[in-house]
Automatic annotation (TrEMBL):
Organism: Maudiozyma exigua
Cellular compartments annotated: Cytoplasm
Keyword Acyltransferase: yes
Name of protein: Glycylpeptide N-tetradecanoyltransferase
Function per UniProt: Adds a myristoyl group to the N-terminal glycine residue of certain cellular proteins.
Glycylpeptide N-tetradecanoyltransferase C-terminal domain boundaries: 227-449
Length: 451
């Protein structure tokens, strides 16, 4: 397999919702000089942190300006009504044509209405947190950013926050420096609701990451990847050998594995909270939020399904494990055979495998959890194949480093930096060693998964 080509594309996949790395060369230069971020309440590279907590806690909503920030004369702000069919169509067109495209114009994100309904409308979502920029004379949507409410926990401290999503500027207008203005405007709107912290990610290094995880990818349909130019046969190998290398069992093997249902929410949420309590950066869910994120909407056709969640129920009727993954496919451009590439992303999971051990890093606890997770996530990849996914992605977050190698997740060149806005924190391990290899001993203390 041509690992470089595979990793180059997968680096594009990390430029996802909330990722601030989709900037022009000029904007990248400005970011390199940190001109914008020097004006923001974020950790500095050389800052010594004595205590964790908000950087600026002096402001109140009434201190925040009521009017939007000035925009270039030929453009105007537009609050997007995501319940309006035409306005959402404008967002689809903007993102599907401008959000992510590889340098050869071969692959591009293929968002669906169902994905946006899931990603943009969790409990507590706000109409005015979907911010667009339109051309005054034509009404054409040329930029977009959004925020959704999340409840973070940083080393046990509750931090009400937002997650910044879908930052996108039309590629013909990226010299206009709209991205920083979009960030300032969404910040203003969030601050008016008395929320002062945010979580965001970037592939580029900004001031200053609280953690860094590495991307890993697991090819599923190697033949298709080769046919679309995604993979090549490595020297000394044959196509048949590559197919054999990544061949999966036809069926899952975990006893009691089944799709998660509404009746499972209470018990699964309780298991999830116990499992997540081991990590230092996590997102807390109430029952309504958990139901939304892991069951999605009602009456979604199978071919439009976004979130896939499964539980393991033992013979006594107890839920011992759960895992989830979501779908965000790529359009394949100018290919005579294939029009889409199925991409799966490992989302959240939990297991009671090592909860009985006092020290989860002990040899017995580690071995027990590694065995269970390796089996579970292998089943997740099989189910992703059943859902027509061709590549399965994961980070080195959570306890992922226990199974990545065994399940043939290749380490990518892409790294995802986690940032906290207006909150300083001590570094949080991201599951990688100094040489960027998987850290299978300390693992990761990042428990949050961003879309």
């Amino acid at each position: 397999m041509d690992q470089k080509k595979l990793e180059d594309l997968l680096k594009l996949l990390q430029i996802n919702q909330g990722d601030l790395s989709k900037l022009t060369e000029q904007q990248r230069k400005d970011m390199k000089d940190y001109k914008f971020w020097k004006t923001q309440p974020v950790q500095k590279f050389d800052e010594t942190i004595d205590n964790e907590g908000p950087i600026d806690s002096s402001k109140k909503p009434e201190d925040v300006r009521d009017e939007p920030y000035p925009m270039l004369a030929e453009f105007e702000w537009s609050t997007i009504d995501i319940n309006d069919v035409q306005e959402m169509e404008d967002v689809f067109v903007l993102l599907n044509e401008n959000y992510v495209e590889d340098k050869d114009a071969t692959f591009r994100f293929n968002y669906t209405k169902e994905f946006f309904q899931w990603a943009l409308k969790p409990p507590g979502w706000r109409h005015d947190w979907n911010v667009g920029v339109r051309v005054k004379t034509t009404g054409k949507l040329v930029a977009f950013i959004s925020a959704i409410p999340i409840h973070l926990t940083v080393r046990g401290k509750d931090v009400p926050s937002v997650e910044i999503n879908f930052l996108c500027v039309h590629k013909q207008l990226r010299s206009k420096r709209m991205a920083p203005v979009l960030i300032k405007e969404i910040t203003r709107r969030v601050n008016k609701q008395n929320i002062w912290q945010a979580l965001y990610t970037a592939g580029v290094v900004l001031p200053s990451p609280v953690s860094t995880c590495r991307y890993a990818h697991r090819p599923i349909n190697w033949n298709k990847l080769q046919e679309v130019g995604f993979s090549d046969v490595p020297m000394g190998k044959t196509a048949a050998e590559m197919v054999a290398l990544y061949t999966l069992p036809k069926e899952t093997k975990t006893q009691g594995l089944r799709p998660m249902g509404l009746k499972d929410v209470d018990e699964t949420l309780a298991l999830f909270e116990k499992y997540e309590s081991r990590f230092e950066l996590v997102q807390a869910f109430n029952k309504e939020e958990f139901t939304h994120w892991f069951l999605g909407g009602d009456n979604i056709p199978a071919d439009k399904k976004v979130i896939f969640s499964y539980v393991v129920e033992n013979e006594e009727g107890k839920i011992t494990d759960f895992f989830s993954f979501y779908s965000l496919p790529f359009s394949v451009l100018e290919n005579a055979v294939h029009s889409e590439l199925g991409i799966g992303y490992l989302f959240y999971y939990a297991s009671d495998a090592d909860l009985k051990f006092e020290d989860r890093f002990s040899e017995d606890a580690t071995k027990t959890l590694k065995t269970r997770l390796t089996s579970l996530i292998n089943d997740a990849v099989i189910l992703a194949k059943h859902a027509n996914m061709d590549v399965f992605n994961a980070l080195t977050s959570q306890d992922n480093t226990l199974f990545l190698d065994d399940l043939k997740f290749g380490p990518g060149d892409g790294f995802l930096n986690f940032y906290l806005f207006n909150y300083k924190a001590f570094p949080i391990s991201g599951g990688i060693n100094e040489d960027k290899s998987y850290d299978t001993e300390k693992r990761s203390n990042v428990g949050v998964v961003m879309l």
